[in-house]
Amino acid sequence: MLQLNEVRWQAILDTARDAIICIDRTGNVSLFNRAAEQIFGYTADDVVGQNVRMLMPEPYRAEHDGYLSNYHTTGVPQAIGRIREVQAQRKGGEIFPIELSVSEARVGDQLLYSAIIRDTSERRAMEVDLAEARRVAEQRERLADIGAITARIVHDLGNPLAGLSMQAQLIQRRVSRDPERPSRDLAAPAERIVAEVRRLDGLIKDFLDFARQQRLDLRTIELPSMLQRLWDLWQPVAAARDITLELAIAPDVPPLTADEDKLRRVLDNLVKNAVEAIDQGPGRVEVRARRAPTDRVRIDVSDSGPGIPESVEMFRLFETTKRDGSGLGLSIAKQIVLAHGGLIGFERHQPNGTTFYVELPVRAVAV
Questions:
Q1: pTM of the shown model
Q2: CB within 10 Å: which end of the chain, N or C, has fewer?
Q3: How far apart are the C-alpha atoms of 253 and 224, rounded to whole Å?
């Protein structure tokens, strides 16, 4: 009966599609199934009895013995009990991505660690191809959008330029008729010119930001610190409108690899929109950050404002609920988030209120 069970277990190990590797407490390999042979290029005879480090690239190779020793001393695991995405090394030296799941078991007096390993090379290659196809599609869509924006700007520049011309002519006529006329009489038309110039400048900057491809300067960001600075900036603005600005950050939020300046622009835009949606309080804006599934982070910006009508799609070009808005702010924010490999969206609440959310991978990859 015992021999039959061993045959069954061997059949299971040999037909498994994932690599199954067992090591002892010193890191030496005691089991190496057929899938492991196919994935790593070694035979079981090559590996059994050798330290499992031979299947790892640096820095994992140099750190592995220390990790085992630390675990035996402290009992605090780093890999046991969860699925990790790491790298492995084939016999020929090729480094490739894997999903690694490690478990611990005792067989009599012996301590064994079992690893189930899945080669994710093909999946990663497909993800790269998909990302490139998405990038090309987004580039084509952006070119079409740029054409639409250009037409819109030509239209929107007409009235402000006509107004600027009228105010400038008014100043010119007054100066021509009476050069000694007090300059304070010219203050009002001059202020209108300045206001229109600022509006045009903002419109052109938004257009340039939208048209420009988002290139990321990726660095490690401590998200709690960045969000605290965001709160420090907007809290006085919110308080002046009788709006409570709340910040909640989950303790397990990891550092991000992202472009801090561009990410900050996205969040500034969302908080600004939330405050302006309420306009005058009492009201509440909440900024929350937490870990999301599949190694991502989610940031929510919620407001107690009147909400967004069902007919309004906020990420559509020129779509805005503001009287003086260009309708490009959220489109630019979406470009930035997509460039990070993330996603952005919003949820309507009943009877009122809105939540905008941003989900970002913990480690963005520049394209």
A1: 0.49
A2: N
A3: 8
Q: Which CATH class is domain 2-119?
A: alpha beta
pLDDT tens, residue by residue, 107-126: 777 888 899 999 988 887 88
Q: Where in the chain is the domain with CATH 1.10.287?
A: 121-213
Q: What is the dihedral of CA 24, 26, 28, 32, to 10 degrees?
A: 30
pLDDT digits (tens, 9 = 90+) for 297-348: 999 999 999 888 877 776 665 556 555 555 577 878 888 888 888 888 888 8
The answer to whether 217 and 261 are in contact (CB under 8 A) is: yes
Q: Provide the CATH number for the domain formed by 214-367 in this structure.
A: 3.30.565.10
Q: DSSP string covering 7-30, please? A: HHHHHHHHH-SSEEEEEETTSBEE
Is the CATH number of domain 121-213 1.10.287?
A: yes
User: 287, 268, 264: which is closest to 216 by C-alpha?
Assistant: 264
153 contacts: CB under 8 Å, gap ≥ 6: 203, 204, 207
Domain with CATH 3.30.450.20 in the chain: 2-119
Instruction: Pick 262 or 206 by higher pLDDT.
Output: 262
To 10 degrees, the CA torsion angle through 98, 101, 105, 111?
A: 40
Contact 103, 113 (CB under 8 A): yes
SS3 80: strand
Amino acid 187: pLDDT: 64
Residues 6 or more apart in contact with residue 300 via CB below 8 angstroms: 286, 287, 288, 289, 355, 356, 357
Supply the pLDDT for residue 203: 63
Other CB atoms within a 10 A radius of the CB of residue 351 amount to 6
pLDDT of residue 292: 85
Ordered DSSP codes for 38-56? HHHS--HHHHTTSBGGGG-
Handedness of CA 233, 239, 243, 249 (dihedral sign): positive
Q: What is the pLDDT of residue 2?
A: 41
Say which residue, 294 or 101, is predicted with more confidence.
Answer: 101
Asked whether the predicted pLDDT for residue 254 surpasses 50, the reply is yes
